[in-house]
Amino acid sequence: MIEPGTRLAGRYRLEDRVSESGGSALWKAIDEILARPVAIRTFETDFARAGDVVTAARAASRLTDPRLTQVFDADDSGERAYVVSEWVVGDNLDDLLQQGPMEPERAAALLCEAAEAIATAHRAGLAHLRLAPRNLIWTTGGTVKVTGLAVEAALAGASTAAAGEVDARGLGRLLYAAATAYWPADESAPPTASRLPAAPIDGGIVCAPGQVLAGVPHALDAVVCQALGVRIRGGRQPFTTPGEVADALGRLPRTPLPLFMGMRGGPPPAVPAPPPRTASRPTPPVTAEHATPAPPIPPVRRVGSPPAAQSHRHRSTGGGQVNKPLVGLAALLAVVVVAVGGWQLSHLGGGGGASQSPSASAPGTTQGSELRVAGASGFDPPPGDGDEKSDRAHLAVDSKQGTAWTTEAYNSDRFGRLKSGVGLLLDMGKTVRVSDVKVTLPGATGSVLQLRVGDSANLGSLRLAAKSTNTDGTITFHPSSAPRGRYVLLWFTRLAPDGGRYRGEISDVVIRGAAS
What are phi and psi of 387, to 5 degrees? Predict the structure, then answer.
């Protein structure tokens, strides 16, 4: 029997047993070399499928999509097999829905991210097969994480030749739950998949979301039914791959996902509960893979408020009679100026922020409106381990003094020559055109920081827009041509010294530009 305090591979110290069932246990542990929390799954010595789980974990470790939980290590060559993966802090879908369903547009956005991630895995030959609300997590960093890819199927001994159909149906069930706060269980779902009440059944077939809850848009209702293969109209066929689900959700109206994920309407308004529930069932214990409850996260600031207009009082400095024709001409000119200024004001801004003042910017001032950041995460692509303190990434965009995101501490300013850099990845929620980015770095000088912008959350797609060396205090990037993309990456290629080691730190980021 493994006990807390046990060390595996000479570096992983087991701390808390999160769950245990079927011959395996999930632990929160500490990687003592990198000084960070990790999730470790261990197995009883007689667990027959330990080798299959390790093989599945190794296959999953090759995937680099940041929305999939990163596998760091997997080994079955010693006395005890184990799998080490990213420790994800946040709320799973069950947690998010305990007080009611999400807004339809937000549910579509959340599941579109998950479907795209699962589609990426299928293109690499991997499937999930066991999708449940506990596997979809909204992290404290404001990002989507799908846990258990390939590993949960191996744990359960699940396999099928129709993996695309199984995962498409699993995504449909998650979307159904997000839109209604009911769980449409079927024979392929894990037996304790959700704490939500069972979805209503009519004639042996699960009711469509629109039958369960008023206000579900017809288009969203149709996608759910097509994914589940029930109540399909118009000659459509059920989805057979996660990619088809992602494409369908991509065509629906979606609300950019905020750092704070709430139910319908979001905070602070109260939300009506789902319709009266006629059946009840025992609530099983929470077994969220790699997840812990997230602390309250402050909403993303309402950015881009226009500066207060200055009042200019004019008084006559001379005597004599007023020239009435000149006064009339001045009044006419004033009307024209106000009209032109109002037209400019209505055409500036966008991208989630308020409009900029219509007056011309002085030399050296910023252009465009302040843009809203939809999500933030630490970025450490291969050959890195896939994450760089994402649980603290939201602190760089919370508009609070004294809070900051920091990188891990390294033994050299260039990461021991093991990788090219680490960074802070900001998801804008939609494509924007970036005019300038102001970054506050409260730590020591000496780091080298790049600004990269692109449409995909991978380093090869994020194009270099600007660079700053010997960063100190607050710096502002002014790209020569306003780059376009959904993702903004602040990429450290060299770290500043910090107490005998090296670290990067960002306490505030302000992005200005416009919707593209």
Answer: -150, 150
What is the C-alpha to C-alpha distance for residues 460 and 10, in angstroms, rounded to an integer? 35
Q: What is the mean pLDDT of residues 240-259?
A: 88
Buried b / exposed e over 225-263, threshold 16 CB at 10 Å, is bbbbbbbeeeeeebbebbbbbbebbeebebbbbbbbbbb
- State how far the Cα of 54 lies from the Cα of 49, in Å rounded to an integer: 9
DSSP SS3 for 52: helix
Phi, psi of 123 (to 5 degrees): -65, -25
Q: Are 492 and 415 in contact (CB under 8 A)?
A: no
CA distance 17 to 42: 10
Lowest mean pLDDT among 196-205, 361-370, 426-435: 361-370
Q: Report how far residue 58's alpha carbon sits from residue 73's, in angstroms, rounded to the nearest whole number.
A: 8
- For residue 381, the model assigns a pLDDT of 85
For 110-147, b where at least 16 C-beta lie within 10 A, e where not — what string?
A: bbbbbbbbbbbbbeeebbbbbbbbbbbbbbbbbbbbbb
Q: Which position has the higher pLDDT, 516 or 237? A: 237
DSSP bridge partners of 25: 20, 42
Alpha carbon 402 to chain centroid, angstroms: 23
Cα(65)–Cα(381) distance, integer angstroms: 9
- Report how far residue 503's alpha carbon sits from residue 444's, in angstroms, rounded to the nearest whole number: 9
Does 450 score more than 80 pLDDT?
A: yes
Q: What is the pLDDT of residue 184?
A: 93
Q: How far apart are CA 228 and CA 207, in angstroms?
A: 11
| Beta pairing partners, 468 | 449
Q: Cα–Cα distance between 47 and 12 in angstroms, integer? A: 21
Answer whether the bond into residue 497 is a cis peptide, omega within 30°: no
Distance separating alpha carbons of residues 326 and 332, to the nearest angstrom? 10
Structure tokens at 474: 């607050």
- Do 182 and 150 contact (CB within 8 A), yes or no? no
Beta-sheet strands, E only, within 2-110 = 7-8, 12-21, 24-31, 36-43, 71-75, 82-86, 88-92
Nearest 5°: phi and psi at 262?
-125, -170
Rounded mean pLDDT of the chain?
A: 80
CA 434 to chain centre: 20
Distance, CA of 143 to CA of 258 (rounded, Å): 9
Can you tell me the distance from the alpha carbon of 450 to that of 482, in angstroms, rounded to the nearest whole number? 15
Q: Which residues contact 108 (CB under 8 A, 6 or more apart)?
A: 175, 220, 223, 249, 252, 253, 254
